[in-house]
Design brief:
The structure holds 2 protein chains of 2 kinds.
Chain A: H1 2-32, H2 39-57, H3 59-82, H4 90-112, E1 127-130, E2 133-136, H5 137-159, H6 161-171, H7 173-178, H8 183-206, H9 217-220, H10 224-231, H11 236-256, H12 267-282
Antiparallel strand pairs in A: 1-2
Helix pairs in contact in A: 1-5, 1-8, 1-10, 1-11, 2-3, 2-4, 2-8, 3-8, 5-6, 5-8, 6-8, 10-11, 10-12, 11-12
Chain B: H1 2-28, H2 31-56, H3 64-79, H4 93-117, H5 120-140, H6 142-145, E1 151-152, E2 157-158, E3 161-162, E4 170-171, E5 174-175, H7 178-202, H8 204-214, H9 216-221, H10 226-252, E6 254-255, H11 262-275, H12 280-299, H13 318-336, H14 340-351
Antiparallel strand pairs in B: 1-6, 2-3, 4-5
Classes of the chains: A mainly alpha, B mainly alpha.
Chain lengths: 296, 367
């Protein structure tokens, strides 16, 4: 039972981190109708900046710099590439982000090389005990920080002028533009916010009990794809729920895979995708996504 | 009138040159080029299939590498003999190759309940799941796949002729090993694959596929059996991938799980985008570019600026330089050449003085 509770708590904490990444996908998709395959590299940029800078300027400024760096990089991708593309087909836009991802990921993995970089976080390997259940402090911090960030985002999305403009442009770009919403700015800011969220996620993907940032860290971000999709690509609530489902599924599968014999090996890695496929078979637009209706 | 005759002569000359090159290359070039060419031709077969699916029908597939793996591993499983660790059926290799293509088609068919329901990005990421599923199965089902280390691939034997280094065969003073023999097989397979796909695309099915891509509801209203077409193209494209997988396995002579990963799946998308979406020529062009670029950069790294030689620090390694270059090509093509390299070639041809209008140029790719 203790084992189960620990796994569940770990799963929820990891899930909240996946939700940060998935929220990034969703924001970008809402603002520019692009599935951003470069997200893994944006995350790696944020993590790499934190890992590089914390020794020189301290952890907190490094975290800020990492978030700002990833936000700038994301905004640059939007400004220099997405905005200029004349592709009518959204699949083609998704493929252009694959091109961006290849460039960024190659350069970053070249710089990281074979190192495993420490993040310089203040939590270290401290463990918190709740009776029998013990969990690394970093996991709790991840849960709280992700919760706060997502909460702030959802409130801003609902109540600020920026959020209203964003929702209006997601609903109907043309009408929003006619009402004076500057689509370019909305899209740019959406990319920047998504980049910053990814940088924070990078931090929590690489702190204890993970040894640190290495060249494969970006790959972990791929698990946020099923999170975003099974929640619904255009739903912020969906990203949150999807993230939690994926986190808990993965934690439980990895935790019990030893008891499943040879079938269990690597099950934690596929499980998120299997869950996604099952959900999509029942609801093709995800749990909270908008269903496309065509009238003839 | 003379224009069209010139055009026909020009095309005839082009084909004759390509044919001569295909026949003569094994006599004059060394193993490196044969290997590179074989990879490019196998990739071209797979890319043609993906272009039918994604380019012509608009079903985004990011899991093409999975179907390649199904083809490659099924061939190995069917053709190998069982031993202590590994299972195999020991079938004749020709039968195994056909079985592998059918198995890939079957895998595509099994996925069709999902592909029929999902569209656009949702379908793309659902197919992405196949890559992870494939890695899990390839590493886990050790009796069939050999696990992490992979499995040796038995050489193909057709009608008593073996595509291997033995028995020794010398043609006009050149020893014909496995690569030389496979070369001609790959040329024939590629021509057949391209010819068949061209037939599909220029006939009624191609028209239906393009209509589905451009407006699914409209296609349905006009009487196109949309879901049957979508499933059919998925199966056909998986069979192309299976064939490409078999060819690759024969060239590599070993199948390893790591090869059939995310990178390969994304490479295939890059191929069809770079070459030109929805056309056979584009797929072949893109496949050659994406496959040959890294190998050329590696081979000539010592004479290129900015590129460091393997094993030295500083600068980009050839593999890295190739990846950055081709990432940039993907971005540049999408931004500046929406019709891909093939579209560019057609545009150049039209603008040449006394230009050679290509009769089959579809009007929508004109600027």
């Amino acid at each position: 039972m203790t084992h189960f509770a620990e796994l569940l708590l770990t799963g929820i904490s990891m899930g909240s981190v996946y939700a940060l990444i998935a929220l990034g996908f969703v924001i970008i998709f809402k603002a520019s109708e692009v599935v951003n395959f470069a997200h893994a590299s944006l995350l790696l940029i944020g993590g790499f900046l934190i890992a590089e800078l914390h020794g020189r300027i301290g952890f907190w400024p490094a975290l800020l710099a990492g978030a700002a760096g990833a936000a700038l990089a994301a905004a640059f991708v939007e400004f220099a590439i997405i905005r200029r593309s004349r592709a009518a087909n959204h699949s083609v836009l998704a493929i252009v982000t694959i091109g961006v991802d290849i460039i960024l990921a190659t350069e970053l993995t070249r710089r990281i090389g074979t190192q495993v970089m420490a993040m310089g976080d203040p939590w270290g390997d401290a463990v918190v005990h709740f009776g029998e259940v013990s969990i690394p402090e970093t996991r709790l911090v991840a849960l709280i920080v992700a919760g706060c960030l997502i909460g702030t985002f959802l409130l801003a999305f609902k109540y600020t002028g920026w959020g209203v403009a964003m929702r209006a442009s997601a609903e109907d770009q043309e009408a929003a533009a006619l009402m004076g919403v500057r689509l370019g700015r909305i899209s740019l800011s959406a990319w920047a916010v998504a980049g910053a969220l990814a940088a924070v996620a990078a931090l929590f993907l690489t702190v204890f009990p993970t040894p640190g940032l290495d060249r494969t860290t970006g790959m972990i971000a791929l698990k946020a794809f099923p999170a975003a999709i099974l929640g619904g690509l255009d739903s912020t609530t969906g990203a949150l729920v999807g993230g939690l489902i994926i986190g808990v599924t993965e934690a439980l599968m990895s935790g019990y895979q030893g008891e499943m014999g040879s079938l269990g090996r690597g099950l934690g890695d596929v499980a998120p995708f299997l869950v996604m496929i099952i959900v999509l078979l029942i609801r093709p637009a995800g749990l909270f996504g908008t269903r496309e209706l065509t009238r003839v | 009138m003379s224009d069209s005759r010139n055009a026909r002569l020009f095309r005839l000359a082009l084909w004759a040159a390509a044919g001569a090159a295909a026949v003569l290359i094994p006599f004059y070039l060394d193993g490196f080029w044969l290997m590179a060419g074989l990879f490019a031709m196998s990739a071209a077969v797979g890319a043609i299939g993906l272009n039918l699916l994604t380019g012509a029908t608009g079903q985004l597939s990011m899991g093409h590498a999975f179907f390649l793996a199904v083809g490659a591993y099924t061939y190995v499983y069917l053709s190998s003999e069982s031993d202590d660790h590994l299972a195999g059926l020991g079938l004749p290799t020709g039968v195994a190759a056909i079985g592998a293509i059918l198995a890939a088609g079957l895998a595509g068919g099994l996925f069709s309940p999902i592909s029929a329901r999902l569209k656009g990005a949702y379908l793309g990421i659902a197919t992405f799941a196949l890559i992870f599923l494939g890695q899990y199965l390839m590493h886990g089902a050790e009796a069939v796949t050999g696990g992490y280390n992979g499995r040796a691939v038995p050489p193909l034997t057709l009608f008593g002729f073996s595509f291997a280094d033995t028995p020794e065969l010398i043609v006009l003073g050149i020893p014909f090993g496995a690569l030389e023999r496979l070369w001609y097989l790959a040329v024939l397979v590629l021509i057949a694959a391209a010819w068949f796909a061209k037939g599909v695309l220029t006939g009624r099915p191609g028209l239906a596929m393009n209509t589905i891509r451009d407006h699914e509801t409209a296609a349905g209203v006009m009487g196109v059996p949309v879901s049957r077409y979508r499933a059919g193209v998925f199966v056909l494209s998986s069979m192309y991938a299976g064939l490409a997988g078999v060819l690759l396995a024969l060239v590599f002579q070993r199948t390893v799980p790591d090869y059939f990963g995310i990178v390969l799946a994304l490479d295939y998308l890059a191929m069809i985008v770079i070459g030109g979406l929805g056309s056979v020529g584009g797929a072949v062009l893109g496949a050659f570019l994406v496959t040959l670029l890294p190998q050329l950069l590696t081979r000539y790294s010592d004479s290129l600026p900015l590129v460091a030689q393997p094993g030295t620090s500083g600068g980009f390694s050839p593999a890295e330089a190739a990846r950055i270059l081709y990432g940039s090509v993907v971005v540049a093509v999408v931004l500046f050449l929406p019709a891909g390299l093939l579209g560019l070639a057609q545009r150049v041809r039209q603008r040449l003085p006394g230009g050679l209008p290509h009769p089959s140029t579809p009007s929508r790719s004109a600027p």
